[in-house]
Amino acid sequence: MKMQNDIVSENPQSTVVAQYERTTPRAEAYQSEAELEQGMIAQLQRQGYEYAHIHHEDELIQNLRQQLEKLNDFHFSDNEWERFFKTEIANEGKGIVDKAETIQRDNIKAFTLDDGTQKNIYLIDTQDVHHNSTQVINQYEVSDGKRPNRYDVTILVNGLPLVHIELKRRGVSLKEAFNQINRYGRESFWAGCSLYEYVQIFVISNGTETKYYSNTTRDSHIREQAKQGKKPRQKTCNSFEFTSYWADAKNKVLGDLEDFTATFLTRHSLLNILTKFCVFTDQKILMVMRPYQIAATEKLLNQIEIAHNAKFYGTRDAGGYIWHTTGSGKTLTSFKAAQLASKLSYIEKVLFVVDRKDLDYQTMKEYDRFQKGAANGNTSTKELEKQLNNSKSRIIITTIQKLANFIKKNPDHDIYRKEVVMIFDECHRSQFGDMHTAITKRFKKYYLFGFTGTPIFVENISASSKGTLKTTEDVFGKRLHAYTIVDAIRDHNVLKFRVAYISTMKEKENVKDDQVWGIEEEEALKDDRRITNVSQYILDHFDQQTKRASSYTFSRLINIKEVVTDKKKKVEEERQKTRLSGFNSIFAVQSIDFAKLYYNKLKELQAEQPENKRLKIATIFSYAPNEEVADGEEDEDNDSTDGLDQSSRDFLEAAIKDYNLMFNTAYDTSSEKFPNYYKDVSQRMKNREIDLLIVVNMFLTGFDATTLNTLWVDKNLRYHGLLQAYSRTNRILNSVKTYGNIVCFRNLEDATNKCLALFGDPTAKGVSILRPFEDYFDGYDEVTEDENGEERQEHVKGYTEYLEELRELAQPGEMPLTDADKKQFIKLFGGILKIRNLLTSFDQFAEQDPLSERNLQDYTSIYLSLRDWAKENAESGDKTNINDDIEFEMELVKQVEVNIDYILFLVQQMQGDRADIAELTIQINKAIDSSPDLRDKKDLINRFIESLTPDSEVADKWKEYVDAEKRKEFERIVSEEHLKEGPAKEFIETAWERGYVPEGGLELNAIMPPINPFDPNANREGKLQKVLGKIKGFFGKFFEIAGGEF
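Given the sequence above, the corresponding structure tokens read:
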């Protein structure tokens, strides 16, 4: 029987179905994994896919030839096919990234035929997607990888495996399917002719929950794999955090496999996603757009088409606005919308308009990242005019100020009579109304669109708005698509907020809280005792709130001064991977007077600290003629300080001098240098070089830094200003950063609740804000909905409950005996690490934590030993699937780990009091065993301790010792493997600069000794892997402890 909802989105206009309603009842009977697979294949066949009986590589290659011949209406001779296959399809020099680039950018191959003529061979037809063939295969076997594997379901497009689906039966964790694909990546996707490296999209499902993700690995994961001695080119997927749900245009998640298959996997939708809604970035990362991004893009394009056909251009009916919450990827959506709109034959130009000069620069960099040279930026009105005159400049990024100036200077330009798409990004400033009027008056055939994370509704219109253009709908027209903060948090695309309210004015026990919070007099708020209390609180709790105990690898910009002072924007960014501790923060204050008070007080309180212990604090502000204090909405001038009174300017000048000393720069408040100071501050915040940035309005909108996790607030905020400010903190980075951290020194609870209700829905507070301390500490009951929409109550375990279970399973330092107990230990301790990560930001946790530091170290040691056990099992092949349902929280382990500085501190203590040597030695070895980064250095550290004399200066001796050991080990590897010493040294220096060991290619070959090509026992590949293994071991041992220098 044919399912009625098999092809719900098969529609020439939309990739994302408008509103999905299942039309057949959900099956209630138990479903095995095999039944799930067969049901999916049958559904795909009903949707127009051909089932192909292909289970081995020779069949896959034969079918590929047939499908490409059919697509190109051309027959290869055997010789031509062999040449084409070896050079263009299965070229041994090409890995996953090269193959992604082939599909996304280079899918038409100019091929020389046997008779010498040239023919374009299409791998995929991106113009007419229905011209492509789609087939489904299952149980494909690979026997020549690291070990034999059999894959679940694969979709072939023109014979190439472009989508792979891994299934688990209902009730099994989705991560098992994810981990299984990881394992295939390590073991067999690269086997044979490596055709499975062409997979663009992976789909994982347990029947109930289904997600998708792209094939390329984020830079940080490449490095992590390289450090662990795995081949990055065989690593085929992102971190689980970057997997996505599919949804309809109303943002209803379509998790059930049947629903996902009926929408995402319809031929039309899938082929559109592969050919139109993937972005292969300049950093060689494949981004598959999310459903809300695709829906918004298509709604915008559809609106242009309707308005063009009905000749509505030049009216509000030709446009509309996209409401996508801050942090959900609006820039990518706008890029794709601009790119596709620019290809419409009747559109002359696409203008992407921002409301600040720095956002112009920032957007240009983002667009360049998506596709180099796709858009044109400009530094002056004159340059904008040139681009508007140039037919080749299809997409132009500019500021609203430059556009308004262009209109003033060119009252009768030819562009006004052409069809022009204008996309405005977050234009909320008070002067926008006037500029909007000027633009719509001159341009006769405009299509006007607004992108915003916080629309202006009647409820949140600012008092200073002028004229009749008030709400976002008044300005741009109807809402085309919405994706709110509730949607984004539910889909794990942004983080929740944790909001703490700290009263620093309560001095008498009998004073009620509401009286304390109600004091609004300026004098009371500026009282030196209050300023001191707030400043001291920040200093005392800074490490705790910004999680300075955690560490992670991050790619830092190292040529900041050159980049920010480059007027022509031609300086290439240089990045270097480095190890960072924790995150950084912004302190939003009410006014410039407050900024002065806090900057001076924090400087005074830090003065007694050693320089290396002081926080790096900066401040930036400028005068704003229309400053909207109550909203906290940015209206400051990033280019000039001319509006500041003399006292404020003198203060800022002094603060910039402090900054110059801190970072060896030469900025000041002049109109030439202040804009570069702004850019420098921006880059150093993104680099996590500044610890605390004090601002009035700047940096509270439009600024993205993944390393920023905390916002300290002594400022009245409401509605869009509040959500914009809070949202600076909730970008996803890693498993340590699980929420955006807001610490309020004013009572903003009511304002926060009203804001979330306006921009989310009445239940938004429960979705968007973390629960109270007691819930995470003791556990709580939660009401959820099952897949049929029926309510059920579940108990969510708390920290103390996890600890109790762990103690029943194993005492501190005790290894569980059975495999089942070991896996249970891994899961329980992983749960403890996750909850500890949340609890550590609550002030009361330190006093109430029942787990002592020693016991935590002992449990961590066992956890790391079990990680080694799991790795050995995976590598031995005895228990192939033992790791598929195990997840190690290594980033969270590193949050509680000790580092080499702590170990050296303990060693120095041994020097001072020789009587405690036995106890300190035990302490040192326990600490080393509990650290993932120091475990492999245990012998090195113990040999160092043995070499010390009672009067040794530990820190100096350690550096000498590490340098000597590093030299010895390097020379030993060169000697044992007969490497070329000069090139080998250069190779290692390159690894030190990049933060990971480069894999394969010319770099590695250059250090190898000559090998006799006629020697049958030479085994060059084996030799390469052996050398690579030794170099990685050397790198892992010395990179961190050698201070980043070779």
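Residues 301 and 460 are 29 Å apart (CA to CA). Try to locate this feature in the token string yourself.
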